[in-house]
TrEMBL record:
Organism of provenance: Achromobacter xylosoxidans (strain A8)
Main localization category: other
Protein's name according to its UniProt entry: AhpC/TSA family protein 7
Keyword Ribosomal protein belongs to the record: no
A GO term from the CC aspect: plasma membrane
Amino acid sequence: MIGIGPFSIQSIGVVAAVLLSWLVTRALAKRLPEASHRLAGAALLDAVFWGVVAARLGYIAFWWEDYFAAPMSMIAIGDGGYYWWVGVPATIAFVWWRTRSMPVQRRPIYVGVLAGVVAWFAGSGAFSLLLEAPRLPDLQLATLDGKPIALRSYEGRPLVVNLWASWCPPCRREMPVLEQAQSEFPGVGIVLLNQGESAQLARDFLHNEGLALSNVLLDPASSSMQAMNSRGLPTTLFFDAEGRLVDSHLGEITMASFKDKISRRFNLASGASQDLPR
């Protein structure tokens, strides 16, 4: 997981793209005698806000069944649930509406939006090409009954690794999502690595919460967090069948976000069965 402090590289990229859009908009508006660079900059930021709202609503609409089953997850904006192909047109439409009485402002704002979008996609593409995908680390762990097991024994199939602890509130809240995911995606190995707790504590938590989870492993030294560059708990990492990291999520994950990542990263239909090590 690449980032600065608690912020992912994707979040930093979005902020940088918006800042570039704002700077370009103001710079171009200053060159137009009838335009106000302050009004143009403010209109751009308003448009970005409503574009983000539209991107979120579009995502919720696409995954409405999962959000309807857990309505509070709609406000979990940290789950990464946004569709740019909804947000960008909404941003452009808002700019047109906002500047209907002052069309001279439109050109610098539209150029600013274009600059931000191009910078975002160019930066994302360049980052993907330059950065070598991390591999599944070679960790020696243990099952709840004390049997040693290597994390790489799960290679050869799509794999989701969740780092969690029973004292972590968002970890506790997302456990039903992971339980449901294990049921709906038997073709994906979903492994839950408990960080720094004893087998008894982990078993008691699962029993008290009524959770029927498989592939729960113990990492008493929390070595997984360092090996996978995790910046906090919970962390969910998605590895392909060759053991390459293809996506990650820091914080509580919703069912909609989980399904979205599975559908985008793994070419595997729900319900396909594979044998997994226990």
